[in-house]
Amino acid sequence: MGTLILLALLKAFTVVVMLGLNIAGLLTWADRRQRAVIQDSIGPNRAVAFLPAHVVKALVGAPAVLVAGAVIALQLVAPPDAGGRTARAVVLSQLFILVGWLTLLGIGGAVRTRGVRSSFDAWVASAGDPRKFVYLGFAAHGVTALLGLSLRGTEIGRTLRDFGYGAGAFLLAGAVLGGAVYTIVHLRGDTVGLRVAGLLHPAADGLKSVFKEDFVPPNADKFLHGLAPMISLFPALVVMAVVPFGDTLCFGVGANDTLDLGRLAAYVPRDGVCSEGAVKLQALDLNVGILYFFALAGTGIVGAALAGWASNNKFSLLGGLRAASQMVSYEVTLGLTIVGCIMIYGTVRLDEMVRWQVEHGWGIFVQPFAFVLFLTAAIAESKRIPFDMPEGESEIVAGYYTEYSGMKFAMFFFAEYVAIVTASALVVVLFLGGWHVPFLDRAGLHVAVGGSVLFSQPLPHAVVILLGFLGFVLKVVGMCWVQLTIRWTLPRFRYDQLMQLGWRKLLPASLLNILVTALVVLALQQASGTVQSALRTLGDATHALVAALGLVGAIAFFRLLLSPARKRRFLETSAARYAASRGGTRSATMQA
């Protein structure tokens, strides 16, 4: 019983705190960064923490020593079996290459900023652009992977495996310690200013909110005024509990049928499910998962309405009325859109929906129209641009939280970002395959289209689960970024346009989607075996398409990150263009 309670707490912590709160906190930083890029404003890079140099050295050196010691201890104390030697050799060699090129990239950037201070700096500077280390690192990753696959089962391959297994841990530990030692040696001055790419700014804002005055209007209902922000934030957090963030973990079973957390299955069959020792990566495994989601998410309407009424402010009341009517309107579309997915998947359990997509194809291919409708309604539910009428600054000041300050305002503010994460997670589960990575099943990598198996590579159970979890997180972050981009690129609707879009456009479209889905499902139930086989092949083809698009997208993303920044000057008026054509404007020294 104690083990089960511990696992439940760990899963709840992972999905609510690690995913919900942490991604929402990062979104506050990313939102300002995106605004700074699109609107040419100041980004969140002003907060800085000045720490003594010896403290910074300890913060750099201690984790490096712990990581290096843990890697070497794992190698010496817990040797794997024959099958695990290959997996550990691959992991250690790839991690060594990753840490190596990341360290060289950081050193190259520092050398370009502060200049050469040592012979090693001179060697790094001789390489030129630090981005070359990234290209070399990717090349090393690819070459080692290809060598391992092509030489698998040969004598040379076994020799390389033994070398990677025997020396990989020490090379990785040396790379980690080397980067830490270089950083410690080259720290100058008594204090070091840490900005962490602007990530301290959201933390400073949160800390500042704690010490701000908690203002309550004189004629407000104090109890409801304080309760409203809690009602808005709480549902946005707890609905994440039913979202599955990974596949089932398979542990061993000890005496009295208790879980043995120290015996994680090494390998799991492709179609096998562990009947004993199974732990679903889902905080709440409910048989009405999607219904629970809507039941709790709908209570957020109460928070906005209470905030508007309890503040005793006409602008707040207008904002509360707008929020309530808007959220009710678009929740109708959200619910009706889900009906089409339930008809296809044949279940209301979110984990079973993901498994259907693993076997047949992602929901975005079987319900593309529902994906567009659901995403639009979900963005409207978060009450952000272009659907931010309840908080329209140019019309009703700040809407339903005009009379809020301090942590109460921060709770309303943060609830919007948590709602973005929650909506993105639900979109990923319903339409983007959840934790599924194309051609990655429970046994490992299995590339097959139809009946033709193109490639197959068994992977340890822990690696498969970790890759699925990372895939889920990346999908959620990608959907959050889409919503941030929409916020800073689209103009605000008028309120009548908002309501017409919900009731006269999205609602009929969602009903039409249900009708078409029902007809297609009935037709497929009567289809022949040839059609069913063709659909399975088509599902495999969609996985191949997703894999290809993901590869192209990853390459384009890294090219964007590695491309040098180019600042262009835009002349927006005819007077500015005329002045530029005449050689620019002239300025003289000001005189009294």
Q: What would you say this structure looks like, in words?
A:
- This protein has 592 residues and is mainly alpha-helical.
- It folds into two domains: 146 residues, no CATH class; 336 residues, no CATH class.
- It has 20 helices and seven strands.
- A hairpin with a 2-residue loop joins strand 6 and strand 7.
- Helix 11 runs antiparallel to helix 14.
- The protein is globular and about 75 Å long.
- The termini are far apart.
- The model has no long low-confidence stretch (mean pLDDT 78).
How is the secondary structure organized here?
Layout: H1 2-39, E1 49-52, H2 53-77, H3 82-114, H4 119-126, H5 131-150, H6 155-185, E2 191-194, H7 200-210, H8 222-238, E3 249-253, E4 259-264, E5 278-279, H9 289-297, H10 300-310, H11 314-345, H12 350-360, H13 363-366, H14 368-381, H15 393-396, H16 406-431, E6 444-449, E7 452-458, H17 461-487, H18 495-525, H19 529-562, H20 574-581
Antiparallel strand pairs: 1-2, 3-4, 3-5, 6-7
Helix pairs in contact: 1-16, 1-17, 2-6, 3-5, 3-6, 7-16, 8-10, 8-16, 10-11, 11-14, 11-18, 14-16, 14-18, 16-17
List the defining traits of the structure above.
592 residues, mainly alpha, 2 domains, two-stranded antiparallel sheet, 20 helices, globular
Q: Provide the number of structural domains.
A: 2
Q: Per DSSP, what share of the residues sits in E-state strands of 2 or more residues?
A: 5-15%
Percent helix, as a range, is 55-70%
End-to-end separation: 85 Å
What is the element string, with H for helices and E for strands?
Answer: HEHHHHHEHHEEEHHHHHHHHEEHHHH
Average predicted confidence as pLDDT = 78
Q: What sort of overall outline do the alpha carbons produce when their principal axes are compared?
A: globular
How many DSSP E strands? 7
Characterize the quaternary organization of these chains.
single chain
Q: Please outline the major beta sheet.
A: 3 strands, antiparallel
Structural class: mainly alpha
Low-confidence stretches: none
Tell me the strand order in the biggest sheet. Answer: 4-3-5
Count of DSSP H/I helices: 20
Radius of gyration: 28 Å
